[in-house]
Design a protein that fits this description.
Layout (H helix, E strand, L loop, with lengths): L10 H11 L8 E3 L1 H7 L3 E5 L9 H10 L3 H6 L1 E4 L3 H13 L3 E5 L5 H9 L3 E4 L4 H15 L2 E2 L6 H17 L5 E5 L4 H13 L4 E7 L4 H8 L26 H8 L2 E5 L1 H15 L5 H11 L9 E5 L6 H8 L7
Parallel strand pairs: 2-10, 3-4, 3-6, 4-5, 7-8, 7-10, 8-9
Antiparallel strand pairs: 1-2
Helix pairs in contact: 1-3, 1-8, 3-5, 3-8, 5-6, 8-9, 9-11, 12-13
């Protein structure tokens, strides 16, 4: 899969991805939240994508990318770098397709996410203290073994796969005035935006991230991809850079995002607590940021709001402390 030859993802590619992966992923529900709806005075619906098979939206993009490989690429195997959820999705998608998989990760990735990837049969390599350092090992193994890299976000087939989530949202709740999407490297927001802005251009798309090391937010402010210092966060899946040679997601996010909101650690924690005590759902920090933004008055909205709850793969010891009212020192 030679990424250099691939065009920027468009609506047709998202539709093709939906056809390709529909039999391989769970169909997750969109659920009305009566409490936040009453608090905001408008309909608030939650896309429960954390109920996806591997616990996050990442399975969509990874499955689309793996199923798009040639037979020769499948024979040589795949490799990727991950803060957790992409690695888990890639390991699962590769195993389902009978493809060898290596996942490289930094020391910042929580142990529960590392072990979950190993449990799916992938070879996990822990390299350095950042996603960029882990990427160096990926580059070496591509050169040495001829593996195909499937990156976590900046890849046409990954973005198109994530875009199927936008198709689902519009099929289940077709008139959102505002859509809140977790924002890290931008694969999820870019894919969803391609789908949603095609079907309903007036829908406002808001990216939500953390205050600690939000690379895409810093890049948007700078006008081009920049590096940021990675920091520990309750929204650890939103960590990592966007890549100084970013080909797709930066431009797509810049084109489609209407607003970016950054949250403090306490604000992120409030979303995790709300999801558990009010919705009965376990969400990781990155999966709860949309809820957190609404709870803390960060979004001014009069019309229907849709929120992407993107993942559930939180360390349960950390989760227990948070829902018990403690604040976790990272």
């Amino acid at each position: 899969m030679n990424q250099s030859r691939q065009s920027e993802p468009d609506f047709t590619q998202v539709l093709q991805a939906q056809h390709r992966i529909s039999a391989h992923i769970a169909q997750t529900p969109t659920v009305l939240d009566p409490i936040l709806s009453q608090k905001l005075g408008c309909t608030v619906s939650m896309k429960f994508e954390h109920r996806q098979t591997t616990g996050s939206f990442k399975l969509r993009g990874a499955t689309n990318a793996v199923l798009s490989l040639s037979n020769e690429e499948k024979r040589r195997g795949v490799i990727g770098v991950s803060t957790g959820n992409h690695g888990r999705a890639l390991a699962y998608a590769a195993a389902q397709a009978g493809v060898s998989c290596i996942v490289c990760m930094s020391k910042l990735v929580p142990e529960n996410k590392v072990q979950a990837i190993r449990d799916l049969g992938a070879d996990v390599r822990i390299i350095g203290n950042s996603q960029d350092e882990a990427q160096s090992e990926v580059d070496r193994l591509i050169e040495q073994e001829g593996r195909t890299m499937i990156p976590p976000f900046d890849h046409p087939q990954v973005i198109s796969g994530q875009g199927t989530l936008g198709l689902d949202i519009m099929a289940q709740d077709p008139t959102p005035e505002c859509l809140l999407v977790p924002l890290s490297g931008g694969g999820l927001l870019a894919g969803i935006a391609v789908a949603v802005k095609t079907l309903r251009p007036q829908t406002r798309i808001i990216g939500i991230s953390m205050q600690r090391g939000a690379a895409m937010a810093a890049s948007l402010q700078a006008g081009s991809p920049v590096q940021v210092r990675e920091e520990a966060s309750l929204a650890d899946s939103l960590g990592g850079g966007v890549g100084l040679t970013n080909r797709y997601t930066f431009n797509l996010v810049k084109r489609y995002v209407d607003q970016v909101i950054l949250l403090s650690e306490e604000e992120i924690a409030s979303g995790i607590r709300y999801a558990y005590w009010q919705l009965g759902e376990i969400l990781e920090g990155s999966g709860a940021v949309g809820i957190s933004a609404l709870l803390n008055g960060k979004v001014k909205q009069a019309g229907p709001v849709a929120v992407v709850c993107s993942g559930r793969n939180i360390d349960l010891h950390v989760h227990h402390k948070l829902i018990s009212g403690e604040m976790v020192n990272l």
